[in-house]
Amino acid sequence: MNPSPDLCNKAIPDTLTSSERADVFVYFGVKMGMKHLLRPEAQPPDPNYIALPQEAPERYQKRLDRRERPANFIARVYAPWLGKGLARNHLLSLDRPLYDALYNWLKKNEFPDWLDLPMLKELNDRQLAEMGLKGGEMLPHPSFDNGMRDQLRLYHAAKTRARMKRKKNGQ
Predict the structure, then answer these.
(1) Which ranges of 3-119 would DSSP assign to H, the alpha helix?
(2) Nearest to 126 by CA among 138, 114, 136, 118
(3) Could you give the residue ranges of the DSSP H alpha helices within 67-115?
(4) Distances (CA, A) of 125 to 65, 107, 141
(5) How many whole angstroms separate alpha carbon 61 and alpha carbon 1?
(6) How do the domains of the chain map onto residue ranges?
(7) Distance of CA 69 to the CA centre of its chain
(8) Do 52 and 81 form a contact (C-beta atoms < 8 A)?
(9) For residues 47 and 37, what is the distance between their CA atoms, to the nearest angstrom?
């Protein structure tokens, strides 16, 4: 069914800019449950997404309460990221002494069930299950449509030209 042009003009006014029209398209795509049909750059951000920290919010070795155990420290300091993508391996790059302390503490203690800090494999299993993949199923290899390929090609061409221009100008 093709809607009549008259209906489209009433639903989407001619006074909208192309950017505003794109926003309307995205809005309807999301409301109609067809977000997956939108190009990745047009998809709205996940409202529950919290970016993982790039640096430790607080260092384990500099904690005020020296009796605080690694699990309790993690629960206190990393609370915003627990259960939202933070895995044990992230602690390795954020705070190596904390990672080592947790490793040593786990030699004599059970991992607490109240602390949602999975190993990387467990995190991957969760995220694949959220995508509907179970037990060894394959995820389709990501591919770009031709429009995305063209945008990437042009981006790299412009980047190369800018680099060549800087070299030519002696910078």
Answers:
(1) 5-11, 18-31, 70-77, 88-94, 96-108
(2) 118
(3) 70-77, 88-94, 96-108
(4) 35, 24, 18
(5) 66
(6) 1-44, 60-130, 143-171
(7) 30
(8) yes
(9) 19
Q: What is the predicted pLDDT for the residue at 6?
A: 58
Q: Which residues contact 108 (CB under 8 A, 6 or more apart)?
A: none
Backbone angles phi, psi at 98, to 5 degrees: -65, -45
Tens of pLDDT along the chain (171 residues) come to: 565 555 555 667 778 787 787 778 778 777 777 766 666 666 666 677 788 899 999 999 999 999 999 999 999 999 999 999 899 999 999 999 999 999 999 999 999 999 999 999 999 888 777 766 666 666 555 555 555 666 677 777 777 777 888 888 876
Using the structure block, give the residue that is written with the tokens 């951000």: 45
First to last CA, the chain: 58
Angle in degrees, 0-180, between the axes of helices 70-77 and 96-108, rounded to the nearest 10: 130
pTM above 0.70, yes or no: no
DSSP 22: H
